[in-house]
Structures are given as structure tokens and as C-alpha cells.
């Protein structure tokens, strides 16, 4: 049973909903561009450091719980969290902003 991909569903769903809830707010396109740039950086860092940590034996993943897709040694599921963070954090911050007068 692929448990880790199922765990990601709520995170990805919340990220999509909250990000789309900010679509009518000012500077949405600019925020998405910056989020995409942040996502690229976070994904690159995840690829490097997850592979290093797995290679030196800091942690492992039970194969039965993974999708089987890997980037080096890192399971693809590890990349969803930084991707969600890159879009969710700015979206939440936008929703919490006080409206301009």
C-alpha cells in the first residue's frame, strides 16, 4: 500500500484551495512567480540534502509505503512538502493581510 502519496493528498489539496482563494487579491501573478522561484530553490535543496541524508543512513523509507518514483535516493513524495510550502505560506500571508484603506 502506498501510504506516503495518500498522506500528501490533504497537504496538496489545502495548498491548492488556499492559493486559489488568493487569485483575486492584488499581485497574484507576481506572487505566483516568486512562489515558483522559491519552489525551484526548495526543490533543489531537497534533492541535494535528502539524497545526502539518505546516503549516509540518517533515515530510510519502507519501500511498501512509497510510490516507487525516486530522484536519486529520495522518494518523489519528499518533494511535495517544499512545493506546498512555497505556495501555501505566501497565500496564507496574503489572506492574513489587512486590507488597504
TrEMBL record:
Annotated pathway: Carotenoid biosynthesis
Subcellular location: Membrane
Transmembrane regions listed in the UniProt entry: 6-23, 35-59, 79-96
GO MF terms, alphabetically ordered: intramolecular lyase activity; lycopene beta cyclase activity
Presence of the UniProt keyword Isomerase in the record: yes
Topology in the lipid bilayer: Multi-pass membrane protein
One GO-annotated biological process of the protein: carotenoid biosynthetic process
One GO CC annotation: membrane
Keyword set, alphabetical order: Carotenoid biosynthesis, Isomerase, Membrane, Transmembrane, Transmembrane helix
Domain Lycopene cyclase: 11-94
Pfam families registered for this protein in UniProt: Lycopene_cyc (PF18916)
Record carries keyword Signal: no
Main location: membrane
Top-level taxonomic group: Bacteria
Name this protein carries in UniProt: Lycopene cyclase
